[in-house]
Amino acid sequence: MDIKELIGEATDYDKKVALERKKPKSWCKSVSAFANTSGGSLVFGISNDNGLIGLENAEEDAEVISEEIKNRLSPVPEFMLRFDKVDNKKFIILDVFKGMETPYYYTADGTTEAYVRIGNESVKANSTELKRLVLRGRNSPYDMQNSGYKFEDYSFSHLKARYYKITKNSFDNKFFTSWNIIDTSGNLTNAGALLADESPIWYSRAFCTRWNGLKKTEAIDSAEYSGSIIYLLSESSAFIRRNMKVKWKKLPESRVDFPDYIERSYFEALVNGYIHRDYLITGGEVHVDIFDDRLEIYSPGGMVDGTMIQDRNIDYVPSERRNPLLADIFARLDYMERKGSGLGLIRDGYSNAPNFIRGKEPVFYSDSAQFRIILPNLNYKNEMAGKLIEDDKQNKVQDRVQDRVQDRVQDDKKLINIIGNDVIGHVTAIEFLEYCKLPRTRMEMQEFCGLAARRNFNERYLNPLLEKGVLKMIMPDKPKSKKQRYYSEL
Q1: Tell me: the pLDDT tens digits for 244-282?
Q2: 389, containing H or E segment
Q3: 27-36, 371-380, 458-467: lowest mean pLDDT where?
Q4: What is the DSSP string of 312-346?
Q5: What does each C-alpha distance from 280 to 128, 133, 246, 270, 367 come to in angstroms?
Q6: What is the pTM of this model?
Q7: Using N-to-C axis directions, what is the helix angle for 263-275 and 324-332, rounded to 10°?
Q8: Where are the alpha helices (DSSP H) in 53-156?
Q9: Mean pLDDT score of the chain, rounded to an integer?
């Protein structure tokens, strides 16, 4: 892969306009971060705006790079130096491979620091990330660690009941050992502790809330669950079911259901939250928040490889499991597939729903501390239209319905006056703002409106809407960030 392909396609790379010999930490931290995360490339000879500057003495720089890595990184990560040439300009590409002896420290200048890759940045590892790196270096994930709790002090009725339900056989006690629920010392592994009926890992709780409206203001229904993650999965799923509606339409020989949320999708999202969450983060729980227009499922911990899910194509995200033992047990219990296709199933569950419309796709978001799945309510804002159609057929349009519709029309007119447009591309302004109730990228908004020209979209629609406060940025302090998304609260 040459430099132009690397810049155009790869996300795991850093660039330096020149080799900073007097400040080796400025680029050595990227070497540490790549080795501690998923590998990557560091390109020397490229400016911040991707200008191809080149190096005056690439061969000598390469020798310095090699020596500095060997002297300042401990342990020394596996790397490869290669050269590229464009328009008679020479460049160095430093490929750093994912390491198996983590953490890889920068040890010089009186400091010993490890770095990790978060998105497209190399940042200093905090205490939780260091614990994670140490466990990975020992090839011993969190869920396989000895919890210190004695097996005989705990019961596993939820585990046994689930096993019987899917196999029609009793749970054999030998499975506790063969499934690594207990270790050779007779203690529970962390996975075993999480599966116990009265789980001693107190922060493995679930908080579920049905909010009144679109924000966290007044709670209509709420519940807190603790215990086995099998119990948490069952109860949080039941909480969603009792706080959603299912419309239906009668056909000649059957009926079609139109649920607010697709069960396969939200169940997969819950499994993702309990199995792939970072249990080293002790101050957080799984949260299920239901609003009028959406369902949000939050779990502590971002992507295992440090990337941002919103920057990835979910069809090509590799199955890298933070808690492989828990994932294996849940696969045995038929809660999930071993091939790691959960995110795709969430998306496909929505796209195959009979009441799915464009703009109601699931949204996936992550950063270094969280993973969030947002599932739109497929019936939200469609209720009034359906009501009018049915009532009109029967000539029973009630005054209160007419009043509400008239109020909505007036609100829409006021909104259009603020926006200055009743149409944005191929959609109405109202449809556009409804679509933007969930954070969207500029490209997503353009595609939704059917507009191809970026400059025209920015000048005619995006910038004016931002100036009028109709659209807002999720990162207002970084308006030009590649991770920027825009949303509407109107």
Answers
A1: 999 888 878 788 899 999 999 999 999 999 999 999 998
A2: helix 383-393
A3: 458-467
A4: S-GGG-----SSHHHHHHHHHTTSS-TT--HHHHH
A5: 6, 11, 38, 19, 16
A6: 0.69
A7: 140
A8: 58-72, 127-137
A9: 86
